[in-house]
Amino acid sequence: MANAAIHKDNLIQSAMRLFRRQGYASSGLQQILAESGAPKGSLYHYFPGGKEALAEAAVTHAGRMVAEMLAALAKKHRTPEAFLFAYCRQMAAWMEESDFRSGCPIATTLLETTPASPAITAAGERVIDGWIDVISGVLARGGGTSREARSRAQTIIAAVEGSLILARVRRSTKPILDVAALLEPKPGARPKAARAAARGRRSSAQRPEG
After folding, report:
1. C-alpha span between 53 and 18 (Å, rounded)
2. pLDDT of 159-200, one tens digit each?
3. Taking burial as the number of CB atoms within 10 A of a residue's CB, which of 22, 50, 71, 200 is the most buried?
4. 2 vs 142, which has greater pLDDT?
5. 190 vs 79 pLDDT, higher one
6. b/e string for 97-118 if b means 16 or more Cβ within 10 A?
């Protein structure tokens, strides 16, 4: 990779880490430059819009990393239940590795900058929609309409995001892992396919012979 590309990538990576750990407002450009090792003049060369443009790139990059992780899990785990458990387990592992100091890689930045910054807001929306695309695709394997799958996917993302806050407060991965129970069948409940089959048998039994 050429030096120019390395400097740009290092700036994005450093901004992503600092925004995630200490927030957008508390992360100064000089600190980001120092941590990235990039030349002083490089920041405005690559990001003429300054800190806002760098944050937009950091949100996009972090969001892409999560989307790639979700896509890999979706390929490996065919059922919605197995996928959600693996997703929660991965997020719990990331939280534990950070000693409960990190959370969602984009949440802190979005909470501090949206909707005041249209550029960062748009980047956040694209990222979250991408996550929904992957998760809803997995949920659709369990039946239901595309609209239902997208709605449930958004609910799962909201639950996971909330669980990351609880995990930091409680210094425990349990709130994250508990989200996996959202797709567990309730005691005595039958899968949708089984319910449909039962209705079909009842309909056949009631049909008059002729």
Report:
1. 15
2. 999 999 999 999 999 999 999 988 765 555 444 544 444 454
3. 71
4. 142
5. 79
6. eeebebbbbbbbbbebbbeebe
Q: Where are the beta strands (DSSP E) in the chain?
A: none
pTM above 0.85, yes or no: no
CATH superfamily placement of domain 55-184: Tetracycline Repressor, domain 2 (1.10.357.10)
Query: How many CB atoms neighbour CB 152 within 10 A?
Result: 20
The string of pLDDT tens digits covering residues 89-100 is 999 999 999 999
HSE (side-chain half, CA atoms, 13 Å) at 46: 23
Which pair of tokens denotes residue 74? 């979706």
Contact criterion met (CB below 8 Å) for 180 and 77: no
CA dist 157 and 147 (Å) reads 16
Average pLDDT over residues 104-118: 95
Q: Are 176 and 95 in contact (CB under 8 A)?
A: yes
Look up tokens 């790639």; give the residue.
68
